[in-house]
Amino acid sequence: MNYMPGTASLIEDIDMGIKLRTFHFRGRHSATELNPRPEKHLVLLRDGRTLIGFLRSIDQFANLVLHQTVERIHVGKKYGDIPRGIFVVRGENVVLLGEIDLEKESDTPLQQVSIEEILEEQRVEQQTKLEAEKLKVQALKDRGLSIPRADTLDEY
Amino acid sequence: MDLLGDHEENLAERLSKMVIENELEDPAIMRAVQTRPVLQPQPGSLNSSIWDGSEVLRRIRGPLLAQEMPTVSVLEYALPQRPPQGPEDDRDLSERALPRRSTSPVIGSPPVRAVPIGTPPKQMAIPSFSQQILCPKPVHVRPPMPPRYPAPYGERMSPNQLCSVPNSSLLGHPFAPSVPPVLSPLQRAQLLGGAQLQPGRMSPSQFARVPGFVGSPLAAVNPKLLQGRVGQMLPPAPGFRAFFSGPPPTTPPSQPRPPGPGPPLQTLRSQAPMFRADTTHLHPQHRRLLHQRQQQSRNQHRSLNGAGDRGSHRCSQQDHLRKDPYANLMLQREKDWVSKIQMMQLQSTDPYLDDFYYQNYFEKLEKLSAAEEMQGDGPKKERTKLITPQVAKLEQAYKPVQFEGSLGKLTVSSVNNPRKMIDAVVPSRGEDDETKEKQVRDKRRKTLVIIEKTYSLLLDVEDYERRYLLSLEEERPALLDERKHKVCGMYDNLRAKLPGQDRPSDDHFVQIMCIRKGKRMVARILPFLSTEQAADILLTTARNLPFLIKKDSQDEVLPCLLRPFSVLLYHLPPVTVTGLLQQLMNLPQSAAAPAPCNPHLTAVLQNKFGLSLLFTLLSRVEDLQSSEPLTESSQSAQWTEVMFMATRELLRIPQAALAKPVSIPTNLVSLFSRYVDQQKLNLLETKLQLVQGIR
C-alpha cells in the first residue's frame, strides 16, 4: 500500500468510505460491503479543543470544513460532546488531524457524560490548576525567580 | 410623436438609410466595382477592419456558423454570448478573458468561478453530478469532425513532433470544439472559469483535463499520474510539464499552450474505455502501454474494493452518495489540485542532495529486505512507500525579467537576483592591535575553516562513485579528472606548504589533528590518497604522536584512525615501515648511543591508539620478514638494528603503565624471537601480554 504525504492522503478520506477492510466482508451482499459513511475525523486545535466531524473539504493550507461537528471535552476519564454544526477551521490553528476508526470508536475506556456535567468538571479542573499555578508562582517569587508565561512569549 | 417632432415610423427608415450596407449603393461614391472580397477566415481574425462591410463579416461568420449551428443548443442559457469561433478557441477566449483576479503566481487560488464552490447544484441530479462529469450522456454527440488541423498528422507523430506542429493541441482535438454535451449551469461556469486562466496558472480545471480520470478513486489515479505516465497530458505550465509527462520532451514547447475551453473534459469521458480518443495520435506502442496501465489500475481498483463487478460497485456507490447528500462537496479535480500542491513539496531534482538520509535509510531497508528474501523464501513483505512525484530536471537557468517598450535594461530584484539592502561596512583590523590571544583564536578559526573546506571536498569525492554510475560514457573521464583534482586539493589542505620551506611543516597538520573533526576527516580521507601521500601523513602523525595524544585526552577519537592506518600499512614498502617504526618509537639514530629515557615511547605505549598502532606495525614487520627471507644484507642489518633498539626500549618500560591495545597480533612472538634471547623473550611476553593464556 503506497501512501501520499500530508493533506494529500487525507483527501481520499473525504468522501470515500471504501477501505481495504471490506475484504473481510466477502460473504455478505455486495451492497452492504461498502461503508456507507464518509470518514470521521478528529481535529486537535491549537487552543486545545478537540473537534470531531466529517471532513468535507480541505485545501493546501489545511483549512478544513467539518460537517456535523462535535466538540469533545475531556476531563479525566470522562468526556462530553457539544454539538456544533459546521466548522470552518483556519489551517494555521490545526495541530493534528486524524481519521477515526469507527469500529474502535466505541471501544474506549472513557465514559460519556452530559454536557453540563462535563462543563462543571472542566471548570473545577481549571480552578485547581489556577490555584496550583498561583502557589508555584508565589514560591518562585519568594526566591527571586520568575517563569515567563507561554502565552506572553512571542518566540516559539 | 417624439421630441423632435418626427414621426416614429419614419425614424426607422431614416436610420436605416444612414447606415449604408453596401458601398455600391452609396450616392457619394463616384465609382465602385464589386469584387469578391478576399476571405481569409483566419483564426482570431474577427478583429477585422471596421471598414469591412458587413457582408464580409457575414461571410466570415457564414461557413463557421453553418457548422456550429446545430450544436449550439438551447441549453446554453447560462453562457454569455459567445460568437462562433475559429479553430483556435483557446487563443480567442484568452483574448476575451475577463480581467483576471490578482492571485499569487503559478500556484494561486482556485480559479474564478461564476458560481461559488460548494453551491449545491440547482438541478435534481445531485448525486449523479460527479458522475456526469465522468460519464456524460452523449446527447449531442456529433460524428467526428473533419479535421480542421493539418492533415499530415498521422498516428506516427511523436509527442515531440506534436509540439512543433502549429495549431495543434495535444488533447484529442478532432473532438474538442464540437461536442458540447448537456451541461448544467454550474458545469458551464466551471468551464468558463477554467478557460479564463492564463497558461501559467495551475487550476483544478486545467488539472482535470488530464485524461485518465475514469472515475477511479484518487488512490488508483494518483500513482499512475505521478509515476511518470506515458499518456499525453496537457502541461499547464512549462515548469510543470515534467511533472506529468513521463519521458521528458526534448524540445520545450515553442508556444505557450493555454487550455482550451472545457468540453474536452466531458468528451474524454464519453469515449469507451477501450479506445481513448486522445490517444489516437500516440505511437501505437505508447497506446498499448497506456492501455495496459489503465487495465492495471482498474484491476487494482477492483481488487481494492473487493466488490464483485463494476456494475454493482457503481450502483452501490450511488446508493452511498444518495444517503449522504453532502458528499462530493469537493470535486475530484479540486482534491487532485490540493494533493498536487502537497506533492510539489516532494519534488526534487536531486534527491540525494535534498534528502540524503532519507534515501540512504530506505536503501538500507530495501537491501535488508532483499537479503532476507534471498535467505528465506517467504512471501514478499509489502513495505508502505511514500509516493513521490517523478520529476525530470527542471530548467535551471535564471532569466531576468525583461520589460517591453522600456529603454535599456531594467533590473528587477527577485529571489534569484537579490538587491543589496544594507550598506554594512566591515572595519578592517590593524595588525598591531591583535593580542596574542586573538592570534591564537584566529589561527584556530582558520584551521576550522580549512577543515570545513576540506570536508566539502571529501563529501564530493565520496559521492563520485554514485555519480559515476549514473553518468554517461562521455562524461566519465571528466568526472575522474575532477575527482583527482579534488583529492589533490584535499591533500594540499592537509599538508599546506608554506612558502620559503622546502619541507612542509608539520604544524599545520598537527593543528588540524588537534580538532576532533579534523581527526575524523583525516580517517576518511586516507583511503583516497595515494600511497606516498598517505605514508607521509602517517609519518607525520607518528612523529607528533605524543602531542596529539595529549590533545586527544578529552576527545579520544584517535582510535578511529587505526583502521585506515592498518590498511595503509599493508601497502607500505619495508623502507617506509622502518622509518615509521623509528619515528613511532623515537628511536635514536644509532644503536650505540646511550639510551636516555624515552618519554615519546612512554607516551605512545600508554595510549591505546599508540600501542595498537605499534603492534600493528610490528606485525607488519614480521610479515615482511617472513615473506622475504632473502633480503639484502644492508637492509637486514638495518632491520636488526632497529629491532634491537625497539626491543630494548620495550623492555625498559614498566608494565603497569601500558595501555590496553585494540588487538594483539599473533605473530609478535615470532618477531621478537628473532632478535632476543629466550629470557628476554619471556619477559617481553609477559609484559606485553603477547601470549594468550596470561591475560
UniProtKB/TrEMBL annotation, chain A:
<dbReference type="GO" id="GO:0000290">
    <property type="term" value="P:deadenylation-dependent decapping of nuclear-transcribed mRNA"/>
</dbReference>
<dbReference type="InterPro" id="IPR001163">
    <property type="entry name" value="Sm_dom_euk/arc"/>
</dbReference>
<keyword id="KW-0963">Cytoplasm</keyword>
<comment type="subunit">
    <text>Interacts with SLBP; interaction with SLBP occurs when histone mRNA is being rapidly degraded during the S phase. LSm subunits form a heteromer with a donut shape.</text>
</comment>
<dbReference type="GO" id="GO:0003729">
    <property type="term" value="F:mRNA binding"/>
</dbReference>
<dbReference type="Pfam" id="PF01423">
    <property type="entry name" value="LSM"/>
</dbReference>
<keyword id="KW-0175">Coiled coil</keyword>
<dbReference type="GO" id="GO:0006397">
    <property type="term" value="P:mRNA processing"/>
</dbReference>
<feature type="coiled-coil region">
    <location>
        <begin position="116"/>
        <end position="143"/>
    </location>
</feature>
<dbReference type="InterPro" id="IPR047575">
    <property type="entry name" value="Sm"/>
</dbReference>
<keyword id="KW-0507">mRNA processing</keyword>
<dbReference type="GO" id="GO:1990726">
    <property type="term" value="C:Lsm1-7-Pat1 complex"/>
</dbReference>
<comment type="function">
    <text>Plays a role in the degradation of histone mRNAs, the only eukaryotic mRNAs that are not polyadenylated. Probably also part of an LSm subunits-containing complex involved in the general process of mRNA degradation.</text>
</comment>
<keyword id="KW-0508">mRNA splicing</keyword>
<dbReference type="GO" id="GO:0000932">
    <property type="term" value="C:P-body"/>
</dbReference>
<comment type="similarity">
    <text>Belongs to the snRNP Sm proteins family.</text>
</comment>
<dbReference type="InterPro" id="IPR044642">
    <property type="entry name" value="PTHR15588"/>
</dbReference>
<protein>
    <recommendedName>
        <fullName>U6 snRNA-associated Sm-like protein LSm1</fullName>
    </recommendedName>
</protein>
<keyword id="KW-0694">RNA-binding</keyword>
<dbReference type="InterPro" id="IPR010920">
    <property type="entry name" value="LSM_dom_sf"/>
</dbReference>
<dbReference type="GO" id="GO:0008380">
    <property type="term" value="P:RNA splicing"/>
</dbReference>
<keyword id="KW-0597">Phosphoprotein</keyword>
UniProtKB/TrEMBL annotation, chain B:
<dbReference type="GO" id="GO:0000290">
    <property type="term" value="P:deadenylation-dependent decapping of nuclear-transcribed mRNA"/>
</dbReference>
<feature type="region of interest" description="Disordered">
    <location>
        <begin position="78"/>
        <end position="114"/>
    </location>
</feature>
<feature type="compositionally biased region" description="Pro residues">
    <location>
        <begin position="246"/>
        <end position="264"/>
    </location>
</feature>
<keyword id="KW-0597">Phosphoprotein</keyword>
<dbReference type="Pfam" id="PF09770">
    <property type="entry name" value="PAT1"/>
</dbReference>
<dbReference type="GO" id="GO:0033962">
    <property type="term" value="P:P-body assembly"/>
</dbReference>
<dbReference type="GO" id="GO:0016605">
    <property type="term" value="C:PML body"/>
</dbReference>
<keyword id="KW-0539">Nucleus</keyword>
<feature type="compositionally biased region" description="Low complexity">
    <location>
        <begin position="292"/>
        <end position="305"/>
    </location>
</feature>
<feature type="region of interest" description="Disordered">
    <location>
        <begin position="287"/>
        <end position="321"/>
    </location>
</feature>
<keyword id="KW-0694">RNA-binding</keyword>
<dbReference type="GO" id="GO:0016607">
    <property type="term" value="C:nuclear speck"/>
</dbReference>
<comment type="similarity">
    <text>Belongs to the PAT1 family.</text>
</comment>
<feature type="compositionally biased region" description="Basic and acidic residues">
    <location>
        <begin position="310"/>
        <end position="321"/>
    </location>
</feature>
<keyword id="KW-0963">Cytoplasm</keyword>
<protein>
    <recommendedName>
        <fullName>Protein PAT1 homolog 1</fullName>
    </recommendedName>
</protein>
<feature type="domain" description="mRNA decay factor PAT1">
    <location>
        <begin position="399"/>
        <end position="540"/>
    </location>
</feature>
<dbReference type="InterPro" id="IPR019167">
    <property type="entry name" value="PAT1_dom"/>
</dbReference>
<dbReference type="GO" id="GO:0000932">
    <property type="term" value="C:P-body"/>
</dbReference>
<feature type="region of interest" description="Disordered">
    <location>
        <begin position="237"/>
        <end position="268"/>
    </location>
</feature>
<dbReference type="InterPro" id="IPR039900">
    <property type="entry name" value="Pat1-like"/>
</dbReference>
<dbReference type="GO" id="GO:0003723">
    <property type="term" value="F:RNA binding"/>
</dbReference>
